[in-house]
User: Fold this.
Amino acid sequence: MTATDPALTALAQGWCALSLLHGRIEAHIERALQAKHGLSVREYSLLDVLSRQHDGDGGHLQMKQVADAVVLSQSATTRLVTRLEDRGLLARYLCPTDRRGIYTNVSEAGLDLLAEARPTNDAALREALDEAAGNPELAPLVRVVESASVPVQPAPSVGVPS
Assistant:
């Protein structure tokens, strides 16, 4: 394939459209969450992922699994956890079976903020998708997003019920 190959060009255009849709949605949600709840999209995502943990076998996530779920590096995830812990939204504790392991739970304040922010997130997502659906380049991608019914799980390797 060369740079002028039509298949490569179509693939690149598709990727650009997907990237554009993602960027627009994320920016729209970011503005709404910041304005109403003082949360970034990443902070909201982290709270959401961690709130889905449970006490059953494999129900608590290691930092690498959390990082994968929120699409950040482990170091960026650790910094994000620290910021939310400093705000009283998360709490870390030692793994009871492996003293080297550190887990993170959402505090009551974090759960309350997440519950308040979820309708804002959902409404902003809906608004961003509706706006993007009016763009002929993005409309097919919006239809794909709207038709997807993938169960939400924090990490593929952990069976956490949604």
In short: The longest strand covers residues 90-94.
